[in-house]
Amino acid sequence: MGHRTPLFDTHVRMGAKIVDFGGWDMPLHYGSQVEEHHKVRQDAGMFDVSHMNVVDLKGANVRPFLSLLMANNVEKLKTPGKAMYTCMLNARGGVIDDLIVYYMNENWFRLVMNAGTRAKDLAWLDATAREMGGVSVLQRPDLSIIAVQGPNAREKVYQALGEALRPATAKLKPFYATNIGELFIATTGYTGEDGFELILPGKAAPYSWQGLAEVGVAPIGLGARDTLRLEAGMNLYGHDMDETTTPLESGLAWTVGWDPASRNFVGRDVLERQRAENVSRKLVGLVLEDKGVLRDHQKVVCGPAGEGEITSGSFSPTLGRSIALARVPASVPAGSRCEVEVRGKRLAARMVKYPFVRNGKSCVD
Amino acid sequence: MSQPPKDLKYTRTHEWVKTMPDGSVAVGITDHAQQLLGDMVFIELPKVGAEYAAGKECAVVESVKAASDVYAPVSGRIVEVNVRLGDAPETVNKSAYGDGWLFRVQPGNPEELRALLDAAAYESLVEAEGH
After folding, report:
1. With an 8 Å Cβ cutoff, is B44 touching chain A?
2. Which of A103, A152, A208, A301 is the least buried, fewest Cβ under 10 Å from its Cβ?
3. Is the dihedral of CA B96, B100, B101, B103 positive or negative?
């Protein structure tokens, strides 16, 4: 038996197929992964992501601490409630984890990190906090996370959890958060749709989940979460990047806070060198033109430029064809045609800019 | 899971086999198999006329989750494939024992049919795998 979230029994009762996910017993789907995917694109769905690691950083030195550890620049966080996506790098510029930093006030920043990287993340945070002082690293296993996503997500949250939430959250732009009593509401997500991520006491999670279900928010498993994030062109840790790849090789150059040049974050020298010498690999989007399904680790043949590999491949329910993220030689021109080796055959694919889907609409020609 | 129909034969690799009036056999994957695999998104069928020995991979069913080989339950020649699955692979989920059939084989050695599992034996196999 793995770790279980406070919603485990609820998932089982709702017919979830439970699978092991990095040591956690989590719902893969509640019947049909594809129907769940469409529900999020067209209406509203909810995900239990309580296995993710919520860490509160408190103390006078939190800002310099994050300035040193995060590749994105925490100085961008000036308004309380603002959130920022960033990578945390090792000294070789490799990605230890990708995460969201929420700025609540000068003495409180909240991190939401991946479940599978929990032990090494905490070791890294703790070691640096001990060295620097003035920062306490507080794990929050008492909290659950319910992500409610889709074009009708916000309205259904108000219906289920109360109109009282509306004034403080209806005008929240993407990537902000606010605290209302024991409820932390953020306009972040992993689907490419509007919606909220609700962080709340674990003991309140089953009641809130039930309320959301009663107003028609469908439970969505981690299977659809993966196809939704892939369509949205969002990286998955351990697939699209890890400790052996830098953000520049992972389509995440936009998350590196280069300015000011004087900010010396962990891994900076390696990224500077890669930038000066031109990075040798890049992440691209692929759309399969032949019939079939692209899968992780399939070989991508890019003509004279060489070969690459699919880092995340699946079927896109919205586009009705297979899509992938792939790491290929940087010299491959944008929009190139390529071939993917699928069970001994070579299938035709085309490189495209991603996201593939945003707010329910295809972004691919 | 729905009960495996009594008039079909089964393999240990979760294919079902139905003997047709003309002596050919229709082949599909069981309801248990389609449930394990989840939503089908692509079915790669064999070519009509191709010959396979029993136990050889002859088709691939791909769900959102994974690709899975389908094995020839008996030796023989492919005489028809279910072309409608090209545009509607989800038929395998909706009707595993009916419209979701994959292909028909003309068996080369009818003895092989007798070695297949009956519904009761297949059910115990599924139960044993579940524990």
Report:
1. yes
2. A301
3. negative
